[in-house]
């Protein structure tokens, strides 16, 4: 029997007024802001509700229809069955990135949306890439904001130790009681500690993160562990060179979860890609520097999808540069 979350709004900033049943019976909650233009589907980060869209969604809704949805088990979306005690009825396979992508397709199909721009924040980049793999002919463009193409656990704090510690963390976390878990995210020191350890920057406002902390406090840590294992098992590295749509990659200069070099790899492999490195930006760049992020995203979409646009691939740009270098001096003037 399907399970639909109904307790509270789970940190929701944008109330979800629509629902669809996905391929396995999961109820997915979503809303669409804006009335004109192409659809931009916002793919959230790991265990994120919709707080990170606080500034970007309204900016996009001026020119686009913006799809804001909750992943299965997150926000007010449900799961294919009851969780049972400490989420024992769920398994890692319930939270795989390809299932998130199939969930997104279910929403697009239900709404009759044929063409879509996929925008991912953090793990949402993995979801966006996997959705592109699933429906490449329906995607107009891709945008990645401080997101990886594979598990961020691999690059956490720019070391290789995190993946080795993951099994230990899973073992220890299994003993965390729900009251202690809630207290951890409702403590007044949660936000200062996030800044102190470099997860967020000093520009990140507590009010922008409070819905996220509240959402995490409501989740069962056992479910989060299974979702983390599923995320860690995913990689879209094989897909990067096959992406045929214009792509924007935004990274934070001081991101300790997805270091800027990850964005450089992504942008160098995707044929038509642009990249912005936000000075001093951390993993919370999207809410730390909203004006810069919003302007960069809107300008990118306008240039590549606006009237009279002409997308030129990286291969073609290189070919043009090569031809220009080989052209004899004075040849241009003769024409």
Condensed summary:
The chain has helices at residues 56-60, 97-111, 124-134, 162-173, 178-185, 190-196, 206-218, 221-232, 260-269, 285-288, 290-305, 314-326, 331-334; strands spanning 18-21, 27-33, 39-43, 65-69, 116-121, 139-145, 247-252, 273-278. It has 335 residues and is an alpha/beta fold. The termini are far apart.
Number of strands: 8
SSE run: EEEHEHEHEHHHHHEHEHHHH
Distance between the termini: 73 Å
Are there runs of 5+ residues with pLDDT below 50, and where?
A: none
Number of contiguous helices: 13
What's the CATH first level? Alpha Beta
Q: Which second-level CATH architecture applies?
A: 3-Layer(aba) Sandwich
Classified in CATH, the superfamily is Alpha/Beta hydrolase fold, catalytic domain
* Helix-residue proportion: 25-40%
The rough form would be described as globular
Structural class: alpha/beta
From the alpha-carbon coordinates, what is the Rg to the nearest angstrom? Answer: 21 Å
């Amino acid at each position: 029997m399907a399970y639909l979350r109904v307790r509270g709004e789970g940190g929701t900033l944008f109330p979800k007024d629509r629902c669809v049943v996905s391929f396995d019976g999961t109820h997915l909650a979503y809303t669409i802001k804006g009335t004109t233009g192409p659809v931009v589907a916002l793919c959230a980060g790991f265990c994120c509700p919709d707080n990170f869209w606080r500034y970007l969604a309204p900016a996009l809704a001026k020119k686009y229809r913006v799809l804001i949805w909750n992943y299965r088990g997150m926000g007010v979306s449900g799961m294919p069955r009851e969780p049972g005690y400490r989420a024992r009825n769920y398994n890692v396979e319930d939270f795989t990135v390809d299932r998130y992508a199939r969930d997104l397709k279910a929403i697009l199909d239900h709404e009759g949306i044929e063409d879509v721009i996929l925008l991912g924040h953090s793990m949402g980049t993995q979801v966006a890439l996997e959705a592109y793999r699933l429906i490449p002919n329906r995607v107009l463009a891709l945008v990645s904001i401080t997101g990886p193409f594979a598990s961020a656990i691999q690059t956490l704090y720019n070391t290789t130790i995190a993946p080795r510690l993951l099994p230990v963390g899973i073992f220890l976390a299994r003993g965390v009681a729900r009251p202690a878990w809630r207290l951890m995210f409702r403590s007044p020191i949660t936000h200062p500690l996030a800044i102190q350890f470099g997860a967020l920057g000093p520009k990140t406002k507590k009010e922008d993160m409070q819905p996220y902390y509240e959402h995490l406090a409501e989740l069962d840590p056992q479910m989060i562990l299974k979702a983390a294992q599923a995320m860690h098992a995913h990689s879209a590295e094989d897909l990067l060179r096959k992406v045929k749509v214009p792509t924007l990659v935004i990274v934070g200069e001081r991101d300790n979860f997805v270091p800027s070099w990850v964005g450089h790899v992504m942008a160098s492999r995707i044929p038509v890609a642009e990249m912005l490195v936000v000075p001093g930006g951390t993993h919370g760049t999207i809410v730390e520097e909203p004006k810069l992020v919003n302007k960069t995203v809107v300008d990118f979409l306008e240039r590549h999808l606006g009237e009279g646009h002409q997308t030129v691939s990286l291969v073609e740009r290189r070919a043009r540069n090569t031809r220009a270098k080989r052209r004899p001096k004075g040849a241009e003037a003769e024409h």
